[in-house]
Amino acid sequence: MAIKKNTQKDSREKLELAQRIADNSQRVVRTYASVENTIITFLRRIFGLLNKVVFDSKFSKFAALIIAVVIYFSVNADSNNSLGVTQASQISDIPVQIIYNSEIYEISGIPATADVIVMGDMSDINLQKSQVNSRLTADLSGLTEGTYTVKLTPTNFISRLSVNVIDSPSVSVVIKKKTTSMFNISYEFINTKNMSNIYSLGIPTFDTTQVRVRASQDTIDQISMVKALIDVTGVSGTFTKDARLVAYDQQGQQISCDIIPEKVVTTVTVSSPSKDTPIIVRPTGIMAEGLAIDSITLDYSTVTIYGPENILEMIDAIYIDLDVSSITSDTSVSTALNLPSGASAMSITKVNMEIKVGELTTKIIEKVPLEWINNTGNYKCLPTNIDDAYINVLVSGTANNLAAINVNNVKVEMDVANVVVGTQSVPLIARGDNGYVTYAIADGRTEIEIQVTEG
Question: How far is residue 169's CA from residue 138's CA, in Å, rounded to a whole number?
Fold first, then answer.
């Protein structure tokens, strides 16, 4: 009986639990539904408001105004934040201006330029870098001879910037009183590379030969010369022009000083001396056995040489030394011409040669009279063997060249430059005027014994 009551009690409890669960589920559903309705209602109101702002002209203008104000304050807030940051930058080579009486005093010790550090807003710094009239000023007005420490003062910088000279905000300056001395004028031609080298420049003349130099005595003592710098760019004839005056020390370094006048008027004669000179080929080396040069034909037989008269007088020909040791047949050769020392230009710089080769032949030119050369002591020179008064000469070359060789165009010379009174041997040399022929003493001698007596 007790067991039956317990079973009924358990059944009631289970029914009650199920009922409570069902009731709770209904409450949860109602809660979710209520929240959902609230959210939907809120969104409907928001979208309704947006529709009014977008599609209603009055509300849209008001909204645009609000947005513009927000953007303006946002941008200006960012700009104010960046402007408030102090930055620094170096500016190099700021010119230094010296204020002093340049007529009376000479200044040393102040640099021509200096570097500065500027601090401030970056926009001001960038603007300052574009300024061309900013400078550092050394004010020496009112100072006389002596040594002073002078501050370099920033001038014409943007006022919002802080300016500091890097290395020497203050410099030690020496002030010396100027004196005046007279100097003769020398000259120097400049830009000669810009003048045609066929022209020669004469000695210039000046409207004055002396100038006054004003500087401290120490500076004047260093001056070695005052030169007139004569620009000859493009000149082709006699000219007159102003020439700038410059002072130099013994090492050729320019010295800063006052030269009065600063320029002189100079006149320079321009000429173009020239000389037509033959081109002569001189074969060198030994040709292959049995061969000789028969002829050499040039496309130019003469060349015009330009230069000073005294140089041209010493030039008798332009020589080409041709190595014939490797020539075994007729050939063509192109070669450059060497400009003689002291000459300025030539009308041509190279020639082409047509070389003809022939068979080597020989013949003897008999009884060539003996001559002497370089008899500076005016001695009387005679061969000890009277038969040596005439010498036989062996000539070698092609038949065409030997055909024109005779006793009249062959020489045998003895060099008596170093002789003394008495009997001695001197060099013996055979020569001729045909460069394609070789000349030698027929018996192979290179010296001859002579008797030397006072002339």
Answer: 10
Amino acid letter, 134 = S
Take residue 288 and report the two structure tokens written for it. 């292959």
Contact residues for 57 (Cβ-Cβ < 8 A; gap 6+): none
Terminal alpha carbon distance of the chain: 189
Nearest to 370 by CA among 390, 385, 384, 387: 390
Residues 4, 423: Cα–Cα separation, whole Å: 181
Strand pairing report for 410-415 and 146-151: unpaired
Using H for helix, E for strand and C for coil, what is the string for the chain?
CHHHHHHHHHHHHHHHHHHHHHHHHHHHHHHHHHHHHHHHHHHHHHHHHHHHHHHCHHHHHHHHHHHHHHHHHHHHHHHHHHHCCCEEEEEEEEEEEEECCCCCEEEECCCCEEEEEEEECHHHHHHHHCCCCCEEEEECCCCCCEEEEEECEEECCCCCCEEEECCCCEEEEEEEECEEEEEEEEEEEECHHHCCCCCEECCCEECCCEEEEEECHHHHHHCCEEEEEEECCCCCCCEEEEEEEEEECCCCCEECCEEECCEEEEEECEECCEEEEEEEEEEECCCCCCEEEEEEEECCCEEEEECCHHHHHCCCCEEEEEECCCCCCCEEEEEECCCCCCCCEECCCEEEEEEEEEECEEEEEEEEEEEEECCCCCCEEEECCHHHHEEEEEEEECHHHHCCCCHHHEEEEEECCCCCCEEEEEEEEEEECCCCCEEEECCCCCEEEEEEECC
> How many residues does this entry show for the chain?
455
Residues 277-323 pLDDT 10s: 999 999 999 999 999 999 999 999 999 999 989 999 999 999 999 99
> Edge-to-edge strand order for the sheet containing 291-298?
291-298, 350-359, 331-336
pLDDT tens-digit map of 198-228: 998 999 999 999 999 999 999 999 999 999 9
Q: Are the C-beta atoms of residues 347 and 196 closer than 8 Å to each other?
A: no
**What sign results for the dihedral spanned by CA atoms 193, 199, 201, 207?**
negative
Average confidence (pLDDT) over 157-183: 92
Q: How far apart are CA 330 and CA 354, in angstroms?
A: 8
CA distance linking residue 427 with residue 386, whole number of Å: 17
Question: Nearest to residue 307, comparing CAs of 269, 348, 345?
Answer: 345
272 closest CA partner among 307, 234, 304, 239 = 307
Report which residue type is found at 66.
I
Q: What are phi and psi of 29, to 5 degrees?
A: -60, -45
Contacts of 76 (CB under 8 A, 6+ apart): none
